[in-house]
Model the fold of this input.
Amino acid sequence: MEPTDSAASVVVFEHVVVSLDCVQALQALGFRVTHLPLNEDNVMSLMTLRPDYVLTINFNKYISEVCELLKIPYLAWVIDTPCYPIYAKAINHSQSFTFMYDAAIALRLRASGVRQVYHLPVAANPERISQLQVSAQEAAQGADISFVANLTRTEYRTWIEPKLSVATRLRCASLIDSLEHPSETFELAEQIADDLIDAIKRESGYPLVGDQYLTTAEKVAYLLGREHSWQQRINLIRQLEQRFAVRVHGNAEWQDEVNCYAGHADHFSLMPKIFRLSRINLNLSRSFVEYGLPMRIFDVLSCGGFLVTNDKHDLQKLFTAGKDLVIFRDTQDLVEICAYYLAHDDERQAIAAQGQATVAQDHTFLLRMIDLFTTVQREQRGDRAPLSRWYP
Done:
């Protein structure tokens, strides 16, 4: 749809994977869209551009401040955990409308007094995916089992753990191990005592601070949770590669940890082809993510890939287990599921096809932008909006 001169204008700041899909969806809805790199000059240019709306992926407190000054509605779609800027007081500005991919965090922020915070899951762009062509050389990128994810070395492993005393390191290790059996909500902060926080600060010198809506214990919990996810990803892939033909694509951190590292996969070109060609695609959501689903789930399904994933609350809200995708409980369950579906192609292909259809029907960027702007415009009329269509 070509925008008219009277159409609402939106400045969308660039993000490595999501913003272009948002731009395409907004243009299809008739908005006049300006897509800008995120830098200081472009943020200050808002004073001249004076758009009707500003959209960023994840929350930026400096953009929030500028939009509050200019009285421009600022829409932030938060797709990462942790996203520390959301805990600043700027999130409660009158012009800030923050959409969290994890409903549990949105609910907690509302309980803390943040008024204009909502739930909005991530999405896929089936139209873009459908245009990809697989070359004969790329067809070899498929595997029995593929996992496309970075292995990010943690702050705890790099800056904190090497400086801790044996006693403090053991206390932290016990907390990390407890995440092998996570609760539905991330409750690790409740187990972190003040004396442990003091010991970590004193021994490591690491600057442990919270924020307006984030306690120091919650900050420590995220640091330990990220370390657990580092260990969990490595251990799970090591188990799988002993039994199956596995390929891991991601950053170079993997190559020293597993034998099946196959290099980087670009998000827009190679990654969708891997999802389409692999017999099983694995998702491993991080333990410190409570309800939310990562982009990988939507990307795999939009490509017609068969997905096996660990459980998260929103899987029951957005998809049907056993129909759109398959959920595993633990490592042994995952091994048995992989063995079964590698031997039952018809069932695997039927689930992959249904998952692709569900994403195309219910989980596109176009639908997410409609939900986002409907919510903001409803609030602007003085009509209180629900948390989301899935959490009324």
About this structure: The first helix runs from residue 19 to 28. The chain has a mean pLDDT of 95.
